[in-house]
Design a protein that fits this description.
Blueprint (H helix, E strand, L loop, with lengths): L19 H25 L7 H6 L7 H22 L13 H11 L2 H14 L4 E7 L5 E7 L12 E7 L6 H4 L3 H8 L5 H9 L1
Antiparallel strand pairs: 1-2, 1-3
Helix pairs in contact: 1-3, 4-8, 5-7
Bound molecules: manganese (II) ion.
Manganese (II) ion binds next to α1.
Length: about 200
Amino acid sequence: MIKQYELPFASNALEPVIDAATVETHHGKHHAAYTKTFTDLVAKAGLEGKSAEEILKNLDAVADETLRTGLRNQGGGYLNHNIYFEQLRPEAEAKHAPEGALLAQIQKQYGSVDALIEELNGLGAAQFGSGWSWLCKAPDGTLKTMKTPNQDNPYSCGTDLVPILTLDVWEHAYYLQYRNRRADYLKALWRIIDWAVAEKRYEG
Ligand code: MN
């Protein structure tokens, strides 16, 4: 079912990291528009009842090129923002560090959580133009990082990876408040990332 993730907090609850105007535009306008357009395209393609993950994993099954490109872009815009907003919490409520199996795997592969954050922020900073930085889980339980352009994600890129965390580096995610300082936005964003959500995705 296609359903935009509803924010369980007020639009100013992520301040000072993300201001109310950015949340209202990003979630209320951009994400809402992706959701509506994707819903319309899914109906046009006769894919009602399929999940966004299924559709994005099987884009090759859509013969019409314009429709396929639309599903890829709008479906990614819908799903990527669900993943992004679900992991954000007001600073006072967010779990600020991972524990358990996820922490153990991070330490094993990256040495420390800070080293992983540095890698993810580096990928986000290095993405030319719009896109996303991702922490993913591979089928064998190992972690993988990647960046994607536009609204692509691990599913539409043909990987077998499951997203654990994502950083939106489209200008609409930060420009009202941070202007051109993408790196400052990425650094601050970790104050409102709820690692409890990442743990659940990793263990799920
Ligand atoms: Mn966005």
